[in-house]
Amino acid sequence: MSVECQILKQLQHPLIETTTHFWRGANMGRWALPLAVFLCISVAATAASDGSFQFKETFDITGAEDHFKTSPDGQVWFLYLDKKAGCGFQTKNQYRFGWFSMKLKLVGGDSAGIVTAYYMASDAGPERDELDFEFLGNRTGQPYTIQTNVYKSGVGGREMRHSLWFDPTEDFHTYSILWNSHHIVFFVDRVPVRTYKNNDKPNNFFPNTKPMTVFSSIWNADDWATRGGLEKTDWKNAPFMSSYKDFSADACQWEDPYPACVSTTTQNWWDQYEAWSLSETQQEDSGWVGRNLVIYDYCTDSQRYPTPPAECSL
């Protein structure tokens, strides 16, 4: 193992600086890791894909089971959507706080009207808490839009939309959520694209009391997903397929009536001081995203919210 790999192995941490701070050159659409670190991560990723992950030990299939398939080694999972049905999967366990990560490759070609979702939710009821990644398809040759949202006690309306600096249909990319009592951070390839803060006071906007299940799904949303519903799903292109692999949850697994890991602090890296706020380099990356990739932010939508919601001032 190279010196670089030994160093990185000693610093195995999802928020480690070398994997989050990217060089941004003249072409602001491309971000690159230092070569040695990139090679090391590639080796580590290959070593991790050793066929040891068993899908059925972690997930249950939802929707039409005949619309779910796996690669021969069981390490890549495919969800299909046609006019008859869609499909999804969810974790058998619930969690409260932690780091949740998965690699996705989105529907290619004409994906208008199609939504691939990767999200967390406490339940399906009207009082649910929820943290959303939603990938909104588009007509051929046009970029995907990534939408994030946060629900507390059934109230959402906290959408942000971003463009991406890569084509998410060409290869797998990593989408992650860091959730602790201080903030929720949405990451794309370890780059923080959105930070949603808590004010450490009783409030109606920060979800931190209910355990959540992790879900993934593909479904038709052509009444709103692409250009506000103007672009409809072209079913001649069906079936539509999204791909998944390398799920990880380094988190507090829920146990009734109350797991000990919820009430302790600094016992896990995702609840240590360094994870309570963005580092300096993460702030730089987040600032670049804010200046270049934000399409919509509910906090600046004065027509929808004449008085900005309380969390927007944090």
Automatic annotation (TrEMBL):
Q: Where in the cell is it found?
A: Secreted, Cell wall; Secreted, Extracellular space, Apoplast
Q: What is its EC number?
A: 2.4.1.207
| One Pfam match | XET_C
Mod. after translation: Contains at least one intrachain disulfide bond essential for its enzymatic activity.
Active site as annotated: 130, 134
Q: Which residues form the signal peptide?
A: none
Question: What broad class describes the main subcellular location of this protein?
Answer: secreted
Give glycosylation sites per the record.
138
Q: Name one GO cellular component term.
A: apoplast
Its BP terms in the Gene Ontology are:
cell wall biogenesis; cell wall organization; xyloglucan metabolic process
Q: Which residues form the GH16 domain?
A: 28-244
Query: GO: which molecular function terms?
Result: hydrolase activity, hydrolyzing O-glycosyl compounds; xyloglucan:xyloglucosyl transferase activity
Cite the entry's keywords alphabetically.
Answer: Apoplast, Cell wall, Cell wall biogenesis/degradation, Disulfide bond, Glycoprotein, Glycosidase, Hydrolase, Secreted, Transferase
Functional note: Catalyzes xyloglucan endohydrolysis (XEH) and/or endotransglycosylation (XET). Cleaves and religates xyloglucan polymers, an essential constituent of the primary cell wall, and thereby participates in cell wall construction of growing tissues.
Family, as annotated: Belongs to the glycosyl hydrolase 16 family.
Q: What is this protein called?
A: Xyloglucan endotransglucosylase/hydrolase
Q: What is the lineage of its organism?
A: Eukaryota, Viridiplantae, Streptophyta, Embryophyta, Tracheophyta
